[in-house]
Design a protein that fits this description.
The chain is of the alpha/beta class. It is 25% helix and 23% strand. It has 12 helices and 22 strands. An 8-stranded parallel sheet has the order 12-11-18-17-16-15-14-13. A 5-stranded antiparallel sheet has the order 1-3-8-5-6, with helices on both faces. A 5-stranded mixed sheet has the order 2-10-9-4-7, with no helix packed on it. Helix 3 links the parallel strand 11 and strand 12. The protein is globular, with a radius of gyration of 25 Å.
Length: 620
């Protein structure tokens, strides 16, 4: 490369900071003309969008690439409350020559009045806010998930179901070459590259944890920059504007998302099991999820010593800085506790033992955690008359108890079946909630939750689902006053006992097929919210981190939970009817209002949720 060319590029990049925003896009276009000179990274374009979309790796015509609610084509705009986590994505379009040593950094947004910076403190998840940057990892889906319990019919299928789909989010401090910075982006180097395309997208995900420190961080405007670097040098800068509103997002969730996890200790051989448990609990809690059911205390008969050790998760003392926890939800305990999970024989096999166990469990919870919803998870998805009769018999045993155990709630993963299963207290159906039965169930002291995901009634759990499939459920829960959404798995890294993959360690970073049963019904991405930072069974997939890695699906659960809290706040200001008017523009119908063979009635576009959220914020 001639020296004059180097000087031209250097001067052009330096001038980006001096121009007014209206000149920025012109400068960027000029800059892209120089990117192939002398072997520089061939980044064809850089753009940004919110957290409610999945940009496929080979998507050459995404509607948000020229501007969207979060990015106006020049500046990224975010608006949020104290204690809220905001997120957005930066997409780099890479040409056929590939690109090397790419990084994304966020210069901490500064308030010009107070000179305080969001995320400048070194304490991760501390009260001054935190900024996290992730590389988006793509999984190739060739054989799309067919209709079954993930979506009812072809009419409800996601809009795009094959190709390279982003999900795993790899922290920037992971092993370089496996998502850690700097990132080398190849094109057509192997079978993972997009086919028959002129470029590939590489996305980066940014979480901005807004401050909880209201004393030192005034509400108002905070200005920063998002930098895309190549070889340690700034390639382009995008202005970032954050409006911090004066309200505080509550730490306690108004609705419960309950997720299950089990059998991951062997993925972290250097960590004591109790530290793995704490890691699971902490990361779920930060994403506004109750991680419950997969621990020894849930799957063994009553043991007071173990329950006493577990109690800090219920009263909230585990989620405090004194115990090493930092983040939203400090001091807030979990809201539920399943006794037995997926048929664990915790309650015994005869009436007398069931009475004894029920008395012990209920007595302990009344004395130690009276606010925790505890219940006997009696069986999973009972499917025939023999199992129905088995359940009815044991329900009768509990109800006949002369001690406190007679009040023990009983739960099963089945939609409401009048008279078939006896006096079940809590139902949770994979096909949603029968809204016409809900009031009657509650009037008898029970409840009806929903289980996993099933379009078109609510968001699906499969990898091919839209990003908002996990967000919309928070909106549905608020609209219909539903209290709990239960997710079967979050760390399905070792396949369960069904199908041809039974008990195998899964290649979750390279094979999207994570569930298949004996009937060969399958689902891509089912059971995955977190990915392993260590992978001892497939060293090529190891990211070198003793931590859980998040996913786009996980982040959208958090977004939906935060949205539901904003709805509650707006309702207190403007009334429920006004809030519902806003919600129904994007979620007009859901659950049993929607036939299973119908198309999805709710919006699948992230921007539409963001616009509705912005209207809700105005009500505060």
């Amino acid at each position: 490369m001639r020296q004059s060319s180097r000087s031209t590029i250097k001067n052009l990049r330096s001038k980006i900071l001096k121009f007014q925003p209206r000149s920025l896009s012109i400068l960027l276009c000029c800059l892209f003309l120089f990117t192939t000179i002398g072997g520089l990274a061939q980044i064809k374009r850089v753009w940004a969008l919110g957290d409610g979309e999945k940009v496929f790796q080979d998507d050459e015509a995404h509607p948000d690439r020229n501007g969207n609610f979060t990015w106006d084509g020049q500046t990224i705009h975010l608006k949020g409350l104290y204690n809220e986590v905001m997120a957005f994505q930066v997409i780099t379009e890479i040409g056929v020559e590939g690109a090397k040593a790419i990084e994304v950094e966020v210069r901490a947004p500064v308030n010009r009045v107070s000179n305080r910076s969001i995320g400048a403190n070194t304490l991760k998840y501390g009260p001054d806010g935190t900024i996290e940057v992730f590389t988006e990892h793509y999984l190739h889906v060739k054989d799309s998930t067919p209709p079954n319990w993930y979506y009812g019919s072809a009419a409800a299928r996601p809009k795009k179901m094959s190709g390279w789909i982003p999900d795993a989010l790899i922290p920037s401090n992971a092993t370089p070459g496996r998502g850690g910075f700097p990132v080398d982006i190849a094109f057509n180097a192997d079978e993972r590259s997009p086919e028959n395309g002129s470029f590939r997208n590489q996305g980066f995900w940014i979480d901005i944890h807004l401050p909880r420190n209201r004393k030192d961080f005034p509400p108002g405007s905070y200005s920063g920059k998002v930098q895309v670097l190549q070889g340690g040098r700034i390639f382009v800068e995008i202005p970032l504007e954050i409006t911090l509103l004066p309200q505080y997002l509550p730490d306690s969730n108004s609705r419960t998302v309950w997720a299950f996890s089990s059998d991951i200790d062997e993925y972290f051989p250097g960590m004591p099991p109790k530290e793995v448990e704490k890691m699971l609990k902490f990361e779920a809690h930060r994403h506004r999820i109750d991680m419950a059911g997969g621990f020894d205390v849930n799957t063994t008969p009553f043991r007071q010593e173990e329950l006493d050790k577990y109690k800090p998760y219920l009263d909230g003392s585990a989620f405090t800085t004194a115990n090493g926890y930092h983040g939203n939800g400090e001091g807030i305990g979990e809201k539920l506790f399943p006794i037995g999970v997926y048929g664990s024989p915790v309650m015994g096999k005869d009436r007398a033992t069931v009475h004894q166990q029920a008395d012990l469990w209920v007595d302990w919870f009344q004395k130690n955690a009276p606010g925790t919803k505890h219940f006997w998870y009696i069986t999973d998805e009972p499917a025939n008359t023999n199992r129905y009769n088995w359940v009815k018999e044991r329900v009768g045993w509990v109800k006949s108890d002369k001690g406190p155990g007679s009040s023990l709630p009983i739960f099963t993963t089945k939609s409401y079946l009048k008279d078939s299963l006896g006096d079940i207290t809590i139902w949770a159906g994979y096909d949603g909630v029968p809204l016409n039965e809900l009031q009657g169930i509650r009037s008898r002291g029970g409840d009806h939750w929903f289980y996993n995901g099933n379009r078109p009634r609510y968001g699906s759990v499969i990898l091919e689902g839209a990003a908002i499939d996990y967000r919309v459920n928070g909106w549905i829960m608020y609209k219909y006053d539903l209290r709990t959404w239960y997710l079967w798995q979050s760390t399905h890294w070792t396949h369960n006992g069904q199908g041809p993959k039974r008990h195998l360690h899964q290649e979750v970073f390279s094979n999207p097929l994570t569930f298949i049963n004996d009937s060969l019904q399958y689902g891509n991405g089912d059971g995955i919210l977190f990915y392993p930072g260590h992978m001892p069974f497939y060293p090529d997939e190891d990211r070198g981190l003793n931590s859980l890695l998040p996913s786009i699906r996980l982040k959208n659960i958090r977004r939906g939970q935060q949205d539901a809290l904003i709805m509650e706040m707006a309702e207190r200001k403007a009334g429920r009817e006004r809030v519902l008017q806003i919600i129904e523009r994007v979620v007009p119908r859901a659950m049993s209002e929607v036939p299973m063979d119908a198309p999805v009635p709710w919006s699948e576009k992230g921007d539409e949720y963001d616009r509705a959220r912005n209207e809700l914020l105005k009500l505060l």
